[in-house]
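Sample pair:
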Amino acid sequence: MDRNSITIASTADSAPDGGSGWAVTTEPFTTADATALRRAYYAEVAGRYWERPATEAEVDQGMLDDPADRLAPPTGQFVVGRLGGRPMACGGIRLLDPATAELTRIYVAPGARGTGGGAALLAVLEAEARALGAVRMRLDTRTDLVEARALYARQGYREIPAYNSGPYAQHWFEKPLV
């Protein structure tokens, strides 16, 4: 398997592509597909936080306030997941220190949830973190992101004490990568 991609067959009969599976590949966070997915991620997490749809201006500001420039080698990586050839998911990692990578911007489009996209993203991102020398993966998330917390638990992540003081961090997880 190419270290930069993985294909995972979908087990869901309702997959938008009829079940052909996910292809997850590294991709610069600046491509049109990556940017559209990052915008969708911000729109969803902001909207859920504010309990109303996020405006385009709020999404624009969120993108400016949290640049993704550390999501490229040698400090990180970004991936896009495609289901039936359509960009439907994204995620990134960044190194916190030489041994610790952090998951960030994990997103699966609502119509593709439940088809294995989240697990496919994590598999590739964990491999990318190992390639950068990380021996553990960490992440923080919010209480209202119930689906994300369930995904992380299913994939072997365990809750840990806070490792940062981010304004939106309410739960912290870690998984050994070795």
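The two ends are 18 Å apart (CA to CA).
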